[in-house]
Design brief:
Blueprint (H helix, E strand, L loop, with lengths): L7 H7 L3 E4 L5 E5 L5 H10 L5 E2 L5 E4 L3 E5 L4 H6 L5 H14 L7 E4 L4 E8 L2 E9 L4 H18 L3 E5 L1 H8 L5 H4 L4 E3 L2 E2 L10 E2 L4 E6 L4 H4 L4 H16 L7
Parallel strand pairs: 5-6, 5-9, 9-13
Antiparallel strand pairs: 1-2, 2-4, 3-7, 4-6, 7-8, 10-13, 11-12
Helix pairs in contact: 2-5, 4-9
């Protein structure tokens, strides 16, 4: 990736969002939630030395009723500077189409904002290194937690769509798995951290959110047997969204 004069997080947080005006006179934006530089800098210090690269800001409608919480950006996302691109992004767009919404109807973010990677020598050519995505660790998720908390305070969603285990467990704790509760909306409080001392761990918030767990879009790429299950979940999501006017503004 070409060198830039500014760091990744400076570039993302300085980008201007598109402002939309509505009859209620409430300003609604499509773009990045402006993250305080000191918040991002503190996060980057906490993960220094870990196998993480880049920084990807969330993107979408804010404030807004729906926030999608994923796992972490992959290589494509870091290079292109937008969430859910590549094959998983195409699958996500199919998800949203079935559910009757678009990317502009929600804010998209993730539990970890840098790409977790693993370097391995190429078999038969040990001098060549192959870099692949990996699942973020619990300490990496905790280090990034204040950023998601800040986005929640700005976006003010009522409904949290989680895709995969990492986003779900970041909000509800490690005892839940998407394979057990996918497609089942529930109201719940979620976990937060102290912004200045996330190392103290999570505490339970008091505000209630609707949580709707979904399989990660990448899951269907590796396990086609999930296709009918995921489609049923998306039809449930569409029906759930139609029960109330979730898309405000």
């Amino acid at each position: 990736m070409a060198q830039q004069n500014s760091s990744p997080f400076e570039h993302n947080t300085q980008q201007k969002a598109t402002r939309l005006e509505h009859s209620s006179q409430q300003a609604v934006y499509i773009g990045h939630v402006p993250l305080p530089p000191e918040l991002v800098q503190a996060c980057m210090r906490r993960v220094e030395g870990k196998q993480l690269e880049g920084f990807l800001a969330g993107f979408g409608k804010w404030p807004g009723d729906i926030m999608l919480v994923g796992e972490a950006p992959g290589g494509n996302e870091i290079v292109q500077g937008r969430p859910f691109c590549g094959q998983a992004g195409k699958v996500l767009d199919e998800y949203l189409q079935i559910a009757g919404i678009t990317r502009d109807d929600l804010y998209m973010t993730s539990a970890v904002r840098s790409r977790p990677y693993r370097d391995r020598p190429v078999k038969g050519n040990p001098e060549r290194i192959s870099r692949s995505n990996r699942t973020p660790t619990a300490s990496e998720i905790l280090a990034h937690a204040p950023i998601l908390d800040y986005e929640l305070s700005v976006v003010k969603p009522r409904l949290l769509l989680t895709v995969g285990n990492i986003g779900l467990q970041r909000l509800l704790g490690g005892g839940v798995r998407v394979s057990d509760i996918h497609g089942q909306p529930r109201q719940s409080t979620i976990r937060h951290v102290d912004r200045d001392h996330p190392e103290h761990g999570y505490t339970e918030g008091t505000e209630q959110y609707w949580i709707f767990p979904l399989y990660h879009p990448a899951a269907i790429l590796y396990n086609r047997s999930l296709e009918s299950v995921i489609e049923q979940d998306l039809h449930r999501l569409r029906d759930f969204l139609q029960e109330e006017e979730w898309i405000s503004g």
